[in-house]
Amino acid sequence: MGERIIADFLFFNHVDYKYEAKASWASVSGGRGAYHPDFTLPESGASIEYWGVNRAGEVPAGWTTSTAEYKQGMAWKRAQFHREGKTLIEFYDYERTEGTLEAALRERLTRSSITLRPMTFEEVGKSFGDLKYIGSSIEKLLVQFITNARAMRREPKEIQPQLQRSTPRVHHFGLLGIAVLERYQAALSEEGRIDFSDMLHQAADILERGTNPLPNFEHVLVDEFQDTSAAMARFLKALVAVTGARLFAVGDDWQAIYGFAGGDVDHIINFESHFGPASTTMLNVNYRSPAVIVEAGAALIARNQKQVPKQVVISSREPGEAYVYEVSDDDSAIVDRTASLVRQELRQIPADRILVLSRTNHLLDDIIEACRRNGVPVGNPDRDVQGVRILSAHKAKGLEADVVIVANASDHLFGFPSKVENPDVLEPVRMSAGDAPAEERRLFYVAITRAMKRLHLVSRQGLPSPYLAEIEGGANPARAPDASNVRVGARFAGAFSVERLYGLSDRQKAAGIRQSGLLATSTSRMAFTSWASFNLEEGALYWLNDVVKDQPYRDQQRVKLDEHTSGNLRPRSPVDRQNGGRELRPHPPPSHQPRLLQS
């Protein structure tokens, strides 16, 4: 109950948090398992622990953990924060029972420099709309949990032990999934029905027993092999073994995006371990997209560890175009900019050559309505109606268009990667654990590589999808740095633009100061003084490491650059001035650098 109160307070005061995220910095030697603080606040780096004790420091009667054991755990956790110099904000169960927990939250979070911004009535109304969508997403994940478990032919009693080694999020969802799976299997049995996975497994059972009602095939051809499930793989192996046929499989591991439906990319990445020795023909020529799109896709996929290595060859001689647009952190701004880009493109190309994609269905209805309101024809393939196609990224598989617009390419609940439909909760019923982050990255790859000429990425200001930095060769960026959330004396990093450089006084020069001026991020502006060994240029954009938070002067935030500060110049991309965008600049590593097709 207390943790729910804390979660609600953080949510309704715009404080981003992660529940029971792993503290990788904690020392967990001596047989102790991983440490998961109750709440982690990414923007400040602070953590929250909610201690389940009364004023006397005692745990509730009936707990399996004794008061002495619980106090020992409290002391260990506090020691971890003290050792690492990290902030721990503590609350107690007796504050909940005495009705003072909310006041304590407000006071201690504010004291720890956590900015509280209460939601407006409009934001509260919108959040409940988001929660309704989250509810439907959970239903989808439960269906996917059952689908994967059935494809693996994994019984509830086999899934349970795996939950003991999982994160709290995966553990609790897994318990719910097991309960639903048990009811689903009971319903099948009572009604004498089978599902698709049963069909595959029962067919494999027949073949593996040596009973072959089928004629002998010479060849078995399988397309989209990257999406092969465990049930399908078992059936294929039995079919090939009994009939003596040769298996001919075609697939692209870079486009394996149906893990939620039971597909497992390991079947194509490690083909020979599943199906025996094979010869491979690499179809690596891209005939669809121009150079900038192919390079963006290659740079992105290079971040995935498990893949079939390949160097893509570009057939097109056109460089192509790709732009990034930042709009305010608001759904309506994403919708408006997307609709505006559609209207702009309609001046040059037919409506059916435009494809609008989003990670989830969350904004699609609003985008469709905004387009129709402006007289833009929206396609409906079910009714054979031509127009702009507006779809989720999963439904875009196999499609192409002259222009692709990706809405909400942001580090956001419904962005890329999705924090709602993220398939990590399916790990206990998947053959290859740990592939969820790679699959999210492959889905973004599928989205951007639908483009034949031009790509537009619409992102929230200060919250770009981490995939943009991966494409452009940067480290995974966090949000734009907010100096107000950094304690004085602490070091932090981020992207800064140099708004202004000031002349130095003789006194400053005598103190060894090299530069002073004004820096800006997408969230704040701050005065700076530099003793660093390099000079900044006015109007340039830099990624700066080890920037020191200085004491503010009046209302002005201030930072210092010293001998430990380092920086990389990030040249500003040419701007698409009509819409306020910038060019996307892919930077694939040498191992994945595409090359042009030799004529």
In short:
This protein is α/β, with parallel strands linked by helices and 599 residues long. The chain has helices at residues 2-12, 67-84, 93-97, 101-111, 121-152, 156-163, 168-191, 196-208, 230-243, 266-269, 271-275, 291-301, 331-345, 364-373, 436-448, 466-471, 506-510, and strands at 18-19, 39-40, 47-51, 88-92, 219-222, 246-249, 285-286, 313-314, 321-327, 354-358, 389-392, 401-407, 451-460, 491-502, 515-520, 525-530, 541-553, 556-561, 566-569, 575-576, 581-583, 595-596. Strand 7, helix 12 (291-301) and strand 8 form a beta-alpha-beta unit.
Description:
The chain is of the alpha/beta class and about 600 residues long. It is built from 17 helices and 22 strands. It has five domains: about 1-110, Endonuclease, Chain A, CATH 3.40.960.10; about 120-190, no CATH class; about 195-280, P-loop containing nucleotide triphosphate hydrolases (Rossmann fold), CATH 3.40.50.300; about 285-470, 3-Layer(aba) Sandwich (Rossmann fold), CATH 3.40.50; about 485-575, Nucleic acid-binding proteins (OB fold (Dihydrolipoamide Acetyltransferase, E2P), Beta Barrel). A seven-stranded mixed sheet has the order 11-10-12-13-9-21-20, covered by helices on one side. A five-stranded mixed barrel has the order 14-15-16-18-17. A hairpin with a 2-residue loop joins strand 17 and strand 18.
Number of domains: 5
Main pleated-sheet profile: 7 strands, mixed
* Uncertain spans: 475-480, 571-575
User: Numbering strands along the chain, what is their spatial order in the largest sheet?
Assistant: 11-10-12-13-9-21-20
What is the number of strand segments?
22
CATH architecture of the largest domain: 3-Layer(aba) Sandwich
Roughly how many Å is the radius of gyration? 27 Å
User: CATH superfamily of the largest domain, please?
Assistant: P-loop containing nucleotide triphosphate hydrolases
The CATH class name of the largest domain reads: Alpha Beta
Query: How helix-rich are the residues, as a percent range?
Result: 25-40%
Structural class: alpha/beta
Strand content: 15-25%
Number of helices: 17
CATH topology of the largest domain: Rossmann fold
Describe the global form.
globular
Output mean pLDDT: 87
Distance between the termini: 68 Å
